[in-house]
Design brief:
heterodimer, A: mainly beta, two-stranded antiparallel sheet, about 5% helix, globular, B: mainly alpha, about 40% helix, about 0% strand, elongated
Chain lengths: ~400, ~70
């Protein structure tokens, strides 16, 4: 195995650690299974199947299919009066904590072209749910410079997303240019990103990315509403949002067995939401074929500028166009910890099987908006991934 | 925040040219940016549903209703 790896390295002038592009044209089959469950009644079973196929020495095809079976996807079974129209959740009779209320199918197909100094990926993605449909296209170009010690990346995507909510309602967003509410049920998302990866020495590299995203259209959740003592209102957000996140990643190996992967992201957007994310992972080879990992993540964000306090909403003490009941736009902190295992069983020929297991615990801090909606002080979740990969 | 920007050029100053035959360790699974790429995709999805910000993590995530 070691000799084969050295031979491969000698014959391959370009090894790109950031995205393992050098192996992108290898044929493989990947199967994984994701599971998510939290204390507010949401459970997701999500198998993913994928294949990679080299079409020639320069072209490759990657096809993936994700299936999500989601319980409690359509919130509470509420019956609320809005402007004298009785508006109900259409998932009649389902319990918020039982049964699969939604099913998502998400295929993703991409082509890879691997040139001598650059690699291009072009793909299309779709997602279909009973009340939400997405069609998207994306591309990415990685240019290898300086004997592949430096990689510059440029990418972009476009996504068209359409709501068909299972409740009777008029879908509105606030148009800041026209200074009035406009009726809209779709959403368009444009993303442009630039990035780099720089090898620092044979044991370390740093990478960075800046991404600009613009979202237009209906940007709130059509099921979200706040029921005060004397009124009920659906969430109403601006119809435009621009985001400016950038990130840095530093990967270092300290010995043959031990490495660290540190990640930091700063995010700011036109809704005045800013956030900081710190993520650290540690990997240790307890055997040549077995690596264990530990991960910790902290995330903190400010609230969007147009949110009011729960007390203000409760009393109706606001005169704003906007209305926000969704906790994810309030000031929030979250914590995540996980353990993982990567195992390349030696009893398979050529060690061409890779098995990965990952288990995480996630929680938010206490939040009044969470309590108002879910009746819980915070959200606590567990999620797991089991992945199996076979390279031909 | 300014300190982080100052650290970036310092990191580049300390870099040395890495020859192809010195990249063996960089090609191992645990040295990838996302060694657990399958769970990273799902994690990213969970975070984008549960948190107000997103992006700059690499890869295309795709949308969902995420009620």
């Amino acid at each position: 195995m070691q000799v084969k790896k050295l031979l491969f390295l000698a014959l391959t002038p370009i090894i790109v650690p950031y995205k393992a592009i050098a192996s992108a044209l290898k044929d493989s089959v990947d199967v994984s299974y994701d599971f998510y469950s939290d204390n507010v009644g949401v459970t997701v079973y999500s198998p993913v199947m994928g294949i990679k196929k080299a079409l020639s020495d320069k072209w490759g095809l990657v096809a993936k299919l994700r299936l999500d079976a989601i319980s409690a996807a359509s919130i509470k079974n509420a019956s609320v009066k809005f402007n004298n129209d009785v508006i109900t959740d259409a998932v009649t009779g389902a319990s918020g904590r039982a049964g699969f209320n939604d099913f998502r199918v998400a295929p993703d197909i991409s082509f890879i072209y691997e040139g001598s100094t650059f690699t291009t990926t072009m793909g299309t993605y779709a997602s279909n749910e009973i009340d939400y449909n997405v069609i998207a296209a994306y591309f990415n170009v990685d240019t290898k410079l300086n004997d592949a010690n430096t990689i510059l990346s440029f990418g972009g995507s476009y996504s068209y997303e359409m709501w068909s909510p299972r409740i009777k309602r008029k879908m509105l967003a606030f148009d800041n240019a026209e200074k009035k509410d406009v009726e809209v049920s779709d959403k368009q998302i444009y993303t442009v990103s630039v990035g780099f990866t720089q090898l620092l020495n044979p044991d370390a590299y740093i990478s960075g990315m800046f991404e600009y995203t613009e979202q237009n259209g209906f940007l709130s959740n059509p099921y979200r509403y706040y029921q005060g003592t004397s009124y009920a209102r659906f969430d109403l957000y601006p119809n435009k949002r621009r985001s400016y996140p950038f990130s840095l990643r530093y990967v270092q190996q300290y010995s043959d067995k031990f490495s660290t992967n540190l990640f930091y992201r700063f995010y700011t957007d036109s809704w005045a939401l800013t956030s900081n994310t710190i993520d650290g992972s540690f990997y240790y080879d307890i055997l040549d074929s077995l690596t264990l990992g530990l991960k910790g993540r902290f995330y903190g964000q400010s609230a969007v500028g147009f949110i009011k306090t729960v007390d203000d909403y409760e009393s109706g003490n606001f005169d704003d166009n906007f209305f926000v009941s969704d906790y994810k736009y309030s000031a929030l902190a979250t914590f995540d910890a996980g353990i993982s295992m990567m195992w390349r069983p030696e009893f398979f020929e050529d060690e061409n099987v890779l098995i990965k297991l990952n288990a995480n615990y996630y929680m938010t801090d206490k939040n009044k908006y969470i309590y108002e909606w879910y009746g819980e002080k915070s959200i606590k979740a567990s999620y797991f991934t089991t992945a199996f990969s076979y390279e031909f | 925040m300014k300190k982080i920007f100052l650290l970036v050029p310092l990191a580049f100053l300390s870099c040395t040219h890495v020859s192809p035959y010195d990249k063996e360790d960089l090609a191992t699974q645990k040295m990838l940016a996302k060694p657990l790429s399958e769970s990273a995709a799902f994690e990213s999805h969970v975070f984008s549903i549960r948190e107000g910000s997103f992006g700059a993590e690499g890869g295309f995530g795709g949308g969902c209703g995420c009620k």
